Structures are given as structure tokens and as C-alpha cells.
Amino acid sequence: MFKVNDNYLKLPGSYLFSTIGKKVAAYTAANPDKSIIRLGIGDVTQPLAPAIIDALHDAVDEMAAAETFHGYAPDLGYEFLRNAMAKNDYQDKGCDISADEVFISDGAKCDSGNIQEIFSVDNKIAVCDPVYPVYVDTNVMAGRTGTYDPLKETWSDVIYMPCTADNNFAPELPKETPDIIYLCFPNNPTGSTITKAQLQEWVDYANKVGAVIIYDAAYEAYISEADVPHTIYECEGARTCAIELRSFSKNAGFTGVRLGATIIPKDLKCGDVTLHSLWARRHGTKYNGAPYIVQKAGEAVYSDAGKAQLSEQVAYYMNNAKVIYQGLKDAGYTVSGGVNAPYIWLKTPGSMTSWEFFDYLLENANVVGTPGSGFGPSGEGYFRLTAFGSYENTVAAIERIKKM
Ligand code: MLT
Asked: Is the pLDDT of residue 104 over 90?
């Protein structure tokens, strides 16, 4: 008789955004006349920029002729895209990353879930609390997290680094030494950031204790303040301790198109083994690459027209962030985030739990958000709203919240 991977059975509930989706579907079915505004999952709403649409059309046409048709993509991704990323995201910012250290994929969610495969199951992970649930859940699936305490909502073998108002939502170096440290800045879900000096402390710490940092930079396009690093490779020594995850979802609206990348410097080693070689082996074995037409669309992100159009798109969402931030403040909420990130993190009113506030908001304002406790125990009593809605919906949602 076959056996299942019973690590899966340890996972409590369903994936956060699936649970929210089911709750909203049930509410909509029971209240078909209500117009729901969704500011829950961080899914973009603006159409792809014209430069990207043009690149997609051109690439589709190429696929229609034998001379320009493309089959399987190269293992690491097309050179045109890896070159564009290495140049624009790293070299132009003074960071030493070369094109052959860029692995193109179909998104940062998959990469952030899959990357743990190249590490031994004995490694101990450290995560911010609250945290994007994929990091922990995928380590649970791999059997790396020990046992679950349903009361504390924590795993016995995970090091939690609380990010609360007391530490300005910035994690402190853990007391227990981790092997793998997950960091995401600008942060999902709190919208907080850390300075370059703070990130340098993490890099120095990781190099000192022999840990690897998995740095999720999915929201870097939203950084507006000068002292906030756009990539961990701005820090000295990051080449020997850090993997970086990049996404095209938030900066270019590819949530439905799917494109991302993982950066693994060749200096990042465990003994003589480079993590680059392991991820290359995994990519070659398990993955056939993001589609050519999508990689061509990704290349257009770095064209002059693409850059100009996308910076307008980011500004559009950040204007929403301002509307949410200011509107909630005016309504008396305690709010943070929203300055270098498209997420606004608010304290639930009174003693309401995150899920109580979710229901309250859905029923009274017909607005969907994300309960902070879904991201970890330190998220309890908090709530996340995304700036990725349309401007009109964002304004309407805040008006409704103010009237509650
Ligand atoms: C979120 O809402 O946290 C994100 O959209 C999830 C993701 O990027 O996968």
C-alpha cells in the first residue's frame, strides 16, 4: 500500500489565501446583492503596461514561424533576460552579480517554496513573525519544522523572530543560531523596511554563524526612501551568504503571467559545494523554464518605455497606499507600512482578533482584507490591506471603513 507524505497532514488548515477565498465565496453566495471590494491577497489590478503587451505580441508572432519559433528554454532562462536583470537590478546599482547567477523561473512563490529542497532536512529555519506563509508551510511539507502547537500556533523546530510595534516590525538577531534565515523586505505582510546598515548586520551575522539568508525582494520596486536597500547584494559579504528571490508580479503586474528569478552567487558554498550547482541541477531536472513569450515580456520591463510605464504603475498603487494609510489614520486606526511597500498594516480596533475583524469588515463594509494572525502568532490583533486595488475601489473601501 502506498504511503503519503504525512508531513502534509501536519499542516493546520488550508493555505491562508485559499481560506480567505472560501470565506468570501460563501459570503458572496449568501449575499449576492453586495458589492465586495477585495483588498486581501496582493494581486494586481492594472493591465500590463503597453511596452509589455507589445513584447508579448511580437513574441507570439515569432512563435508562428518556423524560423523564429522557440521550444524548450535554456535551463537557467534566456540570456537576454538574465543579462537585463543582472545589468539593471544589480550591476547598475553597483552590485556584483553576473547573468549566469540569475535563474529565471515562473515566479517567486514557487522559488521561495522550492528553494528549501537543496538544503538538508536537519537545517533549522528562522522566520519573521508574522511572515509570508509559504516559507513555513513548505518547510513543514519537507519535515523540517517539528511539531505544531495549536495553542501557540508555532512549530517546535522553527525559530520565530517577532516583528511587532515594539521593534518597529524589524526582526532582531535570534538567540538560537539558525541555519537558514528567511527575510523579506519591504516586508510582506507588515509593509516595514530595514535600512542598509540593519541589513548589513544580518549579512555579517549570517557569515559569522554559517547561515544562509533567503532574501525575498519581491517588493523592492515600491521603495521610496533613500536608505532602504533594493537588494541584499548592496551589502558587503552577501555573495557568501545570500540567495535573493525576485518577482515580476508586483513591479510589472505579472501575477497572472508568471515570471520570477532566483539569484545564487557562485561564492555561496557549503564546504566545496556551491548552492548554485545544486539549484542548477534541480532546475535542469525538474523544470523546463518560463515560456519564451513571457521571458520576452520580462525583457520589456527593462526597456526605457517599460521602465517609464512601470514607474507610473507603481506610483498609482502607492497613491492607493497613501489613501489607505491616511484614511485609516483619520478614522482613528493605528497604521504602519504603506511608505516603501504596497501593504498597510493596521491594529484591529479594541480587543478584536484578526479574524473577528475580517468578518466585521466583510459584513459591515463588504471589504476583504487579510487577518494578521494568518501570517503568524505575532500578527494577531493586526490586519493587512493591499494597495493593489483600483483607485476607485480603494477610495470606496476607505469611505466604507470610515462609516463603520
Ligand atoms: C500576498 O498577498 O501575500 C501575496 O500576493 C502572495 C504572493 O505573492 O504569493
From this structure: yes
Q: Where are the alpha helices (DSSP H) in 118-266?
A: 133-142, 196-209, 249-252
**Is the bond preceding residue 189 a cis peptide, omega within 30 degrees?**
yes
Contact assessment for residue 134 and residue 153, using Cβ atoms and an 8 Å cutoff: no
Contacts for 247 with CB less than 8 Å, ≥ 6 apart: 107, 108, 109, 218, 254, 259, 260
Q: 186: cis peptide before it, omega within 30°?
A: yes
Q: What number does the ligand 1 atom closest to the CA of 132 have?
A: 3
pLDDT tens for 212-233 read 999 999 999 999 999 999 999 9
The answer, yes or no, to whether any atom of ligand 1 lies below 6 A from the CB of 340, is: no
Condensed to tens digits (0 to 9), the pLDDT of residues 32-67 reads 999 999 999 999 999 999 999 999 999 999 999 999
Within 8 A by CB and 6+ apart from 388, the residues are 39, 42, 43, 44, 45, 250, 317, 320, 342
pTM of the model: 0.97
Pocket test for ligand 1, best of 16, 17, 19, 44 (most atoms within 8 A of CB): 17
For the CA of 247, the closest atom of ligand 1 is 8
Cα(67)–Cα(15) distance, rounded to whole angstroms?
Answer: 44
If DSSP codes are grouped into helix, strand and coil, which group holds residue 384? strand
Helical axes 50-63 vs 292-300, angle rounded to 10°: 150
Report whether residue 109 contacts ligand 1, using a CB cutoff of 6 Å: yes
CA-to-CA separations, 245 to 56, 155, 305, 358, in angstroms, rounded: 24, 24, 25, 30
What lies within 8 Å, CB to CB, of 117 at 6+ separation is 142, 282
